[in-house]
Amino acid sequence: MTATTSEPPVRLALHSGQAQVYQSPARFRVLVAGRRWGKTHKARTGIVARALKMGAGRYWYIAPTLKSAKDIFWEDLKAAIDPSWLAGKPNESELFVRLRGGQEIRLHGAEDPDSLRGRALRYVVLDEYADMKPQTWTEAIRPALADWKAPALFIGTPKSFNHFYDLFQRGQSPDPKWANWAAWQFRSIDNPTLDPAEIEEARQTTDPRTFRQEWEASFEAISGRAYYAFSRQLDVRPVQLTSGLPVAVSFDFNINPATATIGQSAGGETRFWREVWVSHAGGEATRAAAVAVKQKLREANWTGQIRVYGDPSGKSAKTTGPSDHAILRELFPGATWCIPHAAPHVRDRVAAVNARCETMDGKRHLVVDPTCVHLIADLEQVIFKDNGDLDKTTNAMLTHISDAGGYWVHQEWPVQKPRVSTGAVWMEHLL
């Protein structure tokens, strides 16, 4: 049983880059592209077209989680299928559709690679493969393609030099042993349907490393300084509070040290005025940090508006007392509550801080007062480990104060995601 590796001649709405990937005869294709280039649109087109062309069997779309698979792919998949092709209604609970030729197109999450074992596949798409465990491919999916000699498509945005990068290199290699592989790399701007104003806005709101990775599809080293865009020489100078503007107080709910930052958005800048660092406060750590914040504001004769930011996890009640959030509501009555329901991804939070330090257009937007000695140390010394996680073990005193300030920055200046209409897709019935 051998699957045809070239795409069927269906009538499609694809831009030129998508068409290159679509028409390639390579069995294993690796598509590295910037945000909103149209990777998932290409994947949807390919999986439906292949199912119509190749006939009965299993066709899978896999995302890092089942929730993300549903959010990204499910509604668009149903919209791409003519109702006359269906053998029954789409299964909304298990996320699959069956076509009248015996094809099943099903969505999966890669949270547990072992759960993907054991079924022979005729085609598979692995979306955002960089965010999956390598064994999703090597141990679960690759063997499932053997019966039909079935093809696979890997798509995603780079995440450092990891296993996705390894497959990209394989697809670029002239070595004959990788003759069945092909790889492409496209920038977001290579999508002709993307408004160039989106790119320009990203230059003004995104730090250089994140811009290169997310918009130019560049593989960037994540290990090393987390806040690489921060400069003591350029970003540290005295900060004064401006009357009439709200003050932002932001907390990291750690026990030792308990930390908080006090800042203000003024003149187009993110200004850190003071920091709070409380050691050995035990179960009263959050209360001690909040009291210290109030004391610093009192000493500055501050009577204006206060906005409270921090870690969303602090909403849970403690066995020995009220939750961190409850303490803040008690001590800052009348303040504007700015803590979201869910925490941002660590890399998104760090990217937001870097983007205030320097955006891709070369402008700087962050100022730290020289008294914030612990925050400055964090911005200079916190590092990413090789796996992309923050190093919280080498020096246990690092990361906490920058986490605190980062909650404020991410909430008010998140790295913007691009918006684009991918357009419609049309297919002819091939059965």
Strands, helices and their partners?
Layout: H1 16-23, E1 28-33, H2 39-54, E2 57-63, H3 66-80, E3 96-98, E4 103-109, E5 123-127, H4 135-141, E6 152-156, H5 163-172, E7 181-186, H6 196-205, H7 208-216, E8 224-225, H8 232-235, E9 247-252, E10 258-266, E11 269-278, H9 285-299, E12 306-310, H10 324-331, E13 336-337, H11 346-357, E14 366-368, H12 373-381, E15 383-384, H13 400-412
Parallel strand pairs: 1-6, 1-7, 2-4, 2-5, 5-6, 9-12, 11-14, 12-13
Antiparallel strand pairs: 3-4, 8-15, 9-10, 10-11
Helix pairs in contact: 2-3, 9-10, 11-13, 12-13
Low-confidence stretches: 1-12, 418-431
Mean pLDDT: 86
Report the sheet with the most strands, covering strand number, pairing sense and barrel closure. 7 strands, mixed
Number of domains: 2
Give the total of beta strands.
15
What do these coordinates show?
The chain has 431 residues and is of the alpha/beta class. Strand 12 (306-310), helix 10 and strand 13 form a beta-alpha-beta unit. It is elongated. The protein has 2 domains: 16-194, 3-Layer(aba) Sandwich (Rossmann fold), CATH 3.40.50.300; 224-412, Nucleotidyltransferase, domain 5 (2-Layer Sandwich), CATH 3.30.420.280. It starts with 15 loop residues before the first helix and ends in a 19-residue tail after the last helix. Strands 3-4-2-5-6-1-7 form a 7-stranded mixed sheet, with helices on both faces. It has a 6-stranded mixed sheet with strand order 13-12-9-10-11-14. The protein contains 13 helices and 15 strands.
In summary, what is this structure?
The protein has helices at residues 16-23, 39-54, 66-80, 135-141, 163-172, 196-205, 208-216, 232-235, 285-299, 324-331, 346-357, 373-381, 400-412; strands spanning 28-33, 57-63, 96-98, 103-109, 123-127, 152-156, 181-186, 224-225, 247-252, 258-266, 269-278, 306-310, 336-337, 366-368, 383-384.
